[in-house]
Amino acid sequence: MASKSKCSLLLLATVLVSVPAAAAADNSCFTGTGIPRNMLQRCRDYVEQQTCGVVVADPGIYHGSQPNFLKERCCWELANISQNCRCEALRYFMGATPNPDAISLKDLAGCPKEAQMNFVKILVTPGQCNLVTIHNIRYCLPMGESQY
């Protein structure tokens, strides 16, 4: 009887140790791994349009007959980032997690970066792109700190 109990305890301990280890190994939300390089260019255009009134200069990108074009492109870019990495990608984008390879918000005259950052925080919410994130919710937990 005692050996069966020890075996069960050993099996339970093995499972308890392996689950967090597997979860830790899956945390691959870095540029070039879970987050594409040069990500979210259209999101930067969309954020600038919405918070600063900036008109996109490239006529090949903005289609005047499609007023939601930048939003749709931004949401498409976010949707192509894995659910587990979306919030971390937005942290890189905001500059909360430093990354020299990532496209990030720009300081623009008359448009504080803080206003842009506040808009970025709502990009995954139902009123914008309506995308599920790492915790199976449609928003990101505090954006000022990494989730890893």
What is this structure's SSE topology?
Elements: H1 2-25, H2 41-52, H3 69-79, H4 86-94, H5 113-120
Explained architecture:
With 148 residues, the chain is mostly helical. Helix content is 43%, strand content 0%. It has helices spanning 2-25, 41-52, 69-79, 86-94, 113-120. Helix 2 crosses helix 3 (69-79) and helix 2 (41-52) packs across helix 5 (113-120).
Output the keywords.
single chain, 148 residues, mainly alpha, 5 helices, 0% strand, elongated
In brief:
This protein has helices spanning 2-25, 41-52, 69-79, 86-94, 113-120.
Tell me the structural class. mainly alpha
Helical fraction: 40-55%
Low-confidence stretches: 9-25
DSSP, total strands: 0
Average pLDDT works out at 75
Number of helices: 5
Shape: elongated
Listing every helix as H and every strand as E from the N terminus to the C terminus, the arrangement reads HHHHH
Radius of gyration, in angstroms, nearest whole number: 20 Å
Strand content: under 5%
